[in-house]
Amino acid sequence: MATVSLESLKKSYGKTEVIHGVDIEISDGEFIVIVGPSGCGKSTLLRMVAGLEGVSEGEIRIDGQRVNEKEPMDRDIAMVFQNYALYPHMSVEQNMAYGLKIAKMPKAEINARVAEAAELLQLEPYLKRRPRQLSGGQRQRVAMGRAIVRRPSVFLFDEPLSNLDAKLRVQMRLEIKNLQRELGVTALYVTHDQVEAMTLADRMIVMNEGVADQIGAPLEVYANPQTEFVAGFIGSPPTNFIEAEILGAPAGTKIGIRPEHVAIAPVGQGRTTGLVLYAEPLGAETLIHLTIAGGNAVTVRQDGAVAIPSEGEQVGLSWREDDEMRFDASGRRL
Amino acid sequence: MAHDAHTGMVERRGAGLWLTHLGLIIGVAFIFFPIWLAFVASTVTQPEIVRPPMPLWPGDQFYENYSKALTSGINAPVARMLLNSAIMAFGISLGKIAISLLSAFAIVYFRFPGRHVFFWLIFLTLMLPVEVRIVPTYEVAANFGMLNSYSGLIFPLIASATATFLFRQFFMTVPDELAEAARVDGARPMRFFVDILLPMSRTNIAALFVILFIYGWNQYLWPLLITTDPSMNTIVMGIKQMFPSGDDTADWPVIMATSILAMIPPVVVVIGMQKLFIRGLVDSEK
């Protein structure tokens, strides 16, 4: 239970800078998700907080204490790895107890903590098993158990769900969220999956090429993206981008509009005209893909009950001016 | 393996099956026959061996010949030579495993200046077997006063590029995340080595031990050079020393008994470790 501060944190490998200065104040018990495409530096950022990567510039403080030079074990953190990183020759019990054993904790206390974590994670029947005798979801739980028994101030998760199948992922997502709430531990969670980010985060950091493009609550980020990248990355299907010139706005700028804000209108009405390419009826909703003048692709998301235009048909597209997001040539929000 | 005959794609029945077995039996008999002759020769008296035809069935001198070999031998008691060989073989195999585990650990997990240079230096020694560097090695061992000693028998043969290379390859397949998890758990490097890497390498260690034990046991040239005192002879070179020079008559029954005795420890190690080795393979977790 602690606050975490990152202050103009930078990381370079040789002359290549991969993290260009990230600032954030994380308050006690907050669940922060770092999200971004692969190669954006999100894992590096997490590993810097963990102490597995050195800090090139800037400062990391956990509970007000500078930890830049501290070894991972002295930072009061616990980490859950993508591939679980369980020790293959140790039983579930030994895996969870290993860190405590190294810390020379009395045996009775180790056993009590392991038992408590096992109960919390429903791992009791598997304590004597080896990791290879467990399913992916159970291994994931053991990895979390190993983090929990240390009672750390901060949990670090490095894409913990990416090796699980879709159904299990949804289930474990809820479990992680519940667990974090229950234990009240500050958490940093790295993922490339925006659904995980939206559902788990109290606040999220959207990373793009080593820069934190936007930091904010998920719905705030969704409704009010600060850059073109964030608007395009968060939300599925992604935001439509239209060259503003087509709509009579200054050249070079772009207009972003979310698929659910666009509606199909009769030809000649609405803001512009589009050619229907194909439709994807998903039951509750229908996604309609069109091209408009200038070759821009536009997706419309409409209610499943609304009539679907046929392929090859010319239709009008309308949206409210309030829903428009305008971006300048460098991708910044205007 | 037995059920493979029923489920395998190539099914052998009738004459084919018998012919295969016949071929195998002839092959085994062919390999086994000299060993059988050695055994027969170790159970008869000296005159019986030298008088043609050679006996093909064991005689009644088993106890006499073997006790003579074990207690007095010709130059040194065989029991003593067996002990010397055992100490040397264990020393070499355990020493090689320890050194190569540690050097592989250093090369894979630590970034130090000249890491690659050191690796290639170790790798280069693969091209220099004992026989090539035997004169300078002898010189060094002699200057250290290691002639006629166990340290002289063991230390010069301990460095092993092959084993280092094997462990290096194995360590490189161990996921980095495991080392990181151990670091987060608070394990210092040597703790990680002892608690995580060693138990994970145990099948490799067992396999290597079998190979290295036999390598050590069968050393001939080096012990021949480094030991002059018969009480430090190892058994493999000791057999050769038993051959008479000049007009002396060879005590063939005792020599043959010694040969048979020399074969037993490697066979025991192979059979004993094979079980452990296979259990290790079955248990292996990855």
Give an overview in words.
The complex is a heterodimer of chains A (334) and B (286). By secondary structure, chain A is an alpha+beta fold. Chain A folds into two domains: 4-232, 3-Layer(aba) Sandwich (Rossmann fold); 238-327, OB fold (Dihydrolipoamide Acetyltransferase, E2P). Helices cover 25% and strands 31% of the residues of chain A. In chain A, a hairpin with a 2-residue loop joins strand 9 and strand 10 (211-216). In chain A, helix 2 packs across helix 3 (107-120) and helix 2 (92-102) runs parallel beside helix 4. Chain A is elongated. In chain A, 40% of the residues are buried. Chain B is built from 15 helices and no strands. The longest helix of chain B has 32 residues, at 78-109. Chain B folds into two domains: 4-70, no CATH class; 74-283, MetI-like fold, CATH 1.10.3720.10. In chain B, helix 4 crosses helix 15 (252-283) and helix 5 packs across helix 9. The chains are: A alpha+beta (334), B mainly alpha (286). The A-B interface holds A 50-52, 71-73, 77-79, 81-83, 85-89, 98-99, 102-103, 130-132, 146 and B 175, 177-178, 180-187, 191, 195-196, 199-200, 285-286.
CATH superfamily of the largest domain in chain A: P-loop containing nucleotide triphosphate hydrolases
Number of domains of chain B: 2
Largest sheet of chain A: 6 strands, mixed
The gyration radius over C-alpha positions of chain A equals 24 Å
Strand percent estimate of chain B: under 5%
CATH topology of the largest domain in chain B: MetI-like fold
Distance between the termini of chain A: 39 Å
Main sheet of chain A: which strands, in order across?
A: 6-7-8-3-9-10
β-strand number of chain B: 0
Helix and strand composition category of chain A: alpha+beta
What is the element string of chain B, with H for helices and E for strands? HHHHHHHHHHHHHHH
Q: Share of helix among residues of chain B?
A: 55-70%
Number of strands of chain A: 18
Low-confidence stretches of chain B: 1-6
Alpha carbon gyration radius of chain B: 24 Å
User: Any idea what the shape of chain A is?
Assistant: elongated
> Helix tally of chain B?
15
- Estimate what percentage of residues of chain A fall within beta strands: 25-35%
Most extensive interface, chain pair and sizes: A-B, 25 and 18 residues
Which architecture of the largest domain in chain A does the CATH hierarchy give at level 2? 3-Layer(aba) Sandwich
Instruction: Provide the structure class of chain B.
Output: mainly alpha
